Automatic annotation (TrEMBL):
Any Pfam family: adh_short
Keywords: Oxidoreductase
Name of the protein in question: 3-oxoacyl-[acyl-carrier-protein] reductase FabG
GO MF: 3-oxoacyl-[acyl-carrier-protein] reductase (NADPH) activity
Keyword Oxidoreductase attached: yes
SUPFAM superfamilies named among the record's database cross-references: NAD(P)-binding Rossmann-fold domains
Enzyme class: oxidoreductase
EC id: 1.1.1.100
Lineage: Bacteria, Pseudomonadati, Pseudomonadota, Alphaproteobacteria, Hyphomicrobiales
Gene label: fabG_5
The keyword Oxidoreductase is annotated on this UniProt entry: yes
Species of provenance: Rhizobium tibeticum
């Protein structure tokens, strides 16, 4: 990667696994100091009950060439987020990059159920995990970020604004979360622009997260075996692909041109010229429209 983020300070909120981990590692690979937060540590687990930890992510950041710092934070608790940002202020005196990747809603989503059938408790908790946490984190962290011009806020979501505008995303709660985060980035962009900062929403494509690989019974080394049962998985990408998108964006001195926009890993790869770790360049959202939605046989030729 040609991105140079030496001396930059980043906070990846929700960096335990998935896109958050991929982003943290790539920011580290570009030389940044990365604070990684989440609720699963080597001694404590969140309700996810997954094995990945924030310490592992921080170690990966350091191994990539940056400096990883793991801190357990529940982003639903304002006092914990305030203390986190206070620590970054004391230790670094600045914040250049904020990545809001807090989620935790997979196990709460009841697919294809209308609001009257979906669990109300799970649905409202999903909203809190994905909307409240982002706003709480932005409240404290952006106040620090705007003290120096050039800051970048990245809101992680699922789906581009264009795709989500015409596709119902699983259930009312999930749909609201994933479209709401895009609008949140747009709103923050209006407030940040006068301070010389940029806000964007970014979506991965079909991501080969740790959880997805486990669901399909494969590992990263043999992920293509999963196409035997889920043929369109052929378009999938690693979390590092989104990480490279964020690193390239953060290193772009003209990133303000993207302010308020909804972006994708595949779309940014076309602009900045980076590839996934296997040397391919998956273009998932175009594939979704032209192959999956058109009910054509799975074939990633020309899409990666």
């Amino acid at each position: 990667m040609s991105a140079d983020l030496s001396g930059k300070i980043a906070l990846v909120a929700g960096g335990t696994r998935g896109a958050g981990r991929g982003i943290a590692v790539e920011l580290g690979g570009a030389g940044a100091t990365v604070y990684v937060t989440g609720r699963t540590t080597r001694t404590e687990q969140s309700e996810y009950a997954r094995p990945e930890t924030i310490e592992e992510t921080a170690d990966m950041v350091t191994a990539a060439g940056g400096k990883g710092i793991a801190l357990r934070v529940d982003h639903l608790i304002p006092a914990e987020v305030e203390a986190l940002v206070g620590r970054i202020r004391r230790e670094q005196g600045r914040l250049d990059i904020l990545v809001n990747d807090i989620w935790g809603g997979e196990h709460l989503t009841e697919w294809n159920k209308p609001v009257w059938e979906h669990s109300l408790e799970k649905g409202l908790h999903m909203l809190r995990l994905a909307i409240d946490t982002h706003l709480i984190t932005a409240h404290y962290a952006l106040a620090l970020m705007i003290e120096h011009p050039g800051g970048l806020l990245v809101e992680l979501t699922d789906g581009t604004a264009e795709y989500n505008a015409t596709h119902y995303r699983l259930c009312p709660y999930y749909d609201l979360v994933k479209t709401g985060v895009i609008r949140m980035a747009w709103a923050h962009a209006k407030d940040l622009a006068p301070h010389g900062a940029t806000a964007v929403a970014i979506t991965p494509g079909w991501m080969r997260s740790e959880m997805m690989l486990d669901i399909l019974g494969v590992g990263e080394e043999n992920w293509r075996d999963a196409t035997a049962v889920q043929s369109h998985f052929v378009i999938s990408e690693t979390p590092r692909f989104t990480g490279r998108a964020v690193a390239a964006l953060a290193a772009d001195p003209e990133r303000a041109r993207w302010n308020g926009q909804s972006l994708s890993s595949g779309g940014l790869a076309k602009v900045y010229g980076f590839d996934d770790v296997d040397g391919s360049r998956p273009d998932c959202w175009r594939y979704m429209d032209e192959v999956m939605e058109a009910e054509k046989p799975a074939d990633a030729t020309g899409y990666r």
